[in-house]
Structure formats: structure tokens, C-alpha cells
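Feature request, filed as a ticket because there's no other form

It would be nice if the structure record came with a short human-readable summary line next to the C-alpha cells. Right now we just get the raw output. Example of a typical job, pasted below so the devs can see what we mean:
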Amino acid sequence: MSKLNLIPQEILLKRRNKRKLLVTSFCIGVVVLVLLYFFVTFFANIFFLERDIALYQDKILRIQNQLGEEKDFQRELNDLRKREAIYLSLIKGKTYFSDLISKIEGQKSGDIVLTSIILKDTKNVGIVGFSSSLLSCSNYINKLKAIDKIKDIFLNHIRFDTSRNVYYFELNVILK
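Raw output as currently delivered:
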């Protein structure tokens, strides 16, 4: 027995085309949904990662601020230790800075002006000033060498100021 199909060929082709179209559109829909899912998850991950990066940058900034505060604290602590060493040396009678400063001031001639005397630590003193001539500076350094508590003197720099017609100098004095 043979099968006889009484449905016209056009309708069969239309049905096949409809099935193909339905299967193809279903496949395309699935592919579009999968791509859409990947895009949404990709951009969601980017959003969450950017939020995490901003959060961590904020934490890094707070930590850097804390480290800066600790560095300031460390500098302050070192300064206090230097001051304590100077104070302890004063108490023990090693160096009487008031006598030393008065001797440094007493050795200068009339044309030397001292602008500052800096106690750097227990063994170093800085002297800054100006004079009208190099000879006066040289004589002053030689007079300072005669002070018994001074071990050595170094001339850090000297420069001539043409507007005021004076020599600015800076000395570093090493104490015994």
C-alpha cells in the first residue's frame, strides 16, 4: 500500500517553511538572550569592580593620611629627643651654652653683625651673619678658634650682596 498525500504541495512547503522559521527564530532568540545575559553580567561586573576600586582607593587614601601623620609624629619625636639631649647635656654641665654664646658674641668686631646662632645639637652650633669685608670675616673665624670649647670651625658659604655691599656668611662650629 502506498501513501497518498492529498495536501497540496504549496501548503506542505509553507508548513515546512513555518517550522524552519519557527526553529530558526527560536534559535536566534536563544542566542540573543544568551548574548544579552553575557552583556548584562559583563557590565554588572564592571560596575561592581569600579565600585570596589573606588572603595579601595578611598581606603588607600585614608591609610596614606595615617602614614603621613605617623611620619609627622616621628619627626616630632626625633626633635624632642634632640632637645632632650641638649637639655641633659646642660644639666650635666658638659657645655654651658649661655657662656659659649656670650664668648661667640664677644669675639666679633664692630663691622660683623650676627643674625642668628643656632644650637643644632650638643656638638654643633651654626653662626649666620654679615660683614663689610672678607678680612673681618677671616679675623672673626680666627678669634673663634681661640675659644677653648670650640674644636673646629667650617665656613659653609659666603656670598657678596651688591645691593647692600656686605658679605653674608654661615659658619658651622664643632664643639669639644
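Something like this underneath would help us a lot:
Residues 145 and 152 are 7 Å apart (CA to CA).
Residues 9-94 form one domain.
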